[in-house]
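note to self: dont lose this again. the chain is below, predicted strucutre after it. 353 aa total, dont forget to put it in the shared folder this time
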Amino acid sequence: MTQFFDVFQSLQILSNLKTAEIRCYKFLQELLCHAYVPRCDPATSEIIPACKETCVEVLEACDWIDLAASGQLHCDYLPANGTVPCFYEPVTCGPPPNTNNAVLLRNNSQVTDTFPVNTTREFVCEDDSLELQGDNVVQCLFSGLWSEPPQCVPPHRESRLLTILVPLLFLVVILLIGVAAAARMARKRQKLAMLVRQKEFDAFVCFNFDDHNDYVCETILPEFEENQNPPFRLLSHERDFVPGSRINTNIAEAIQNTNSAIIVMSRNFVKSEFCKYEFDLCSQEHAIDPAFRLFVIMMDPVEDLEEVPPAMRLHFRQETYLNENDPDKFEKIARYLTWVKQPKENRKRCCCP
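---
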């Protein structure tokens, strides 16, 4: 009988549990009594041990001390209920506790005064004007007691007031955050507009000299510098780059000195290292300064472009571009160049593409 329990350790645990008033004390005490002072069968004088189920209930009720893992309790040494005479009294709870102004929801089960472990019962308030505090479901525990029942109490005026004020305060905070963000964005746009108006050129024309020099010199430059009123100033590397300076220095200074970039995209453009360098710097400038726009004019279909760098391909997927056969392409670019040069108070949103 003593194989399944260490005597001295179990007595020490029992003493500690009793001192601490732990609920599993009741179950452990019962198991110890049947282990060390067992009942005897009057007819056969045989010892009637505790059943395995009694031991399992101790493990469940006292799971926080983990008796099985520590090697102090081994339920497998005890006989199962129904195999041989042994002692087992299933844990039950009495009727559910009464609570103020709350009633139990009746179910279709038979009315009884005892309830097995894990049985649940649900409470509701008698009056709809009352407020249920606590869990509305009580459960029969391994201690033989029910879990804490709820209480039905009149709602506090303060709680009603809080339920109204908290959402209102939340909305006010969100509104203030939105106003602050809008004001900060407005100041940022104003600073950007001031920077834009101070730049010397309206747009930097990026193209491959070998295949579209005539298109730029005979079409794009005259369209913006002669046919627009007021005329725009475009920066072309063939005409405006400073002689004797490094090419990459000229490119960087050109982008810093313009409001936007007009990119004539072609097969030769994506193959040119300098053209790709211009595109990368323009993309970086757009990321830093949203007012700096990239107007890409597709001279060849996107799907016909070969060896397109990943950054350039990502731009084509995320940003809009213009086709060469679009008759309004120059008008769309001019509309933005005109809009961005205006003082903020004179701008109209409809004029922004």
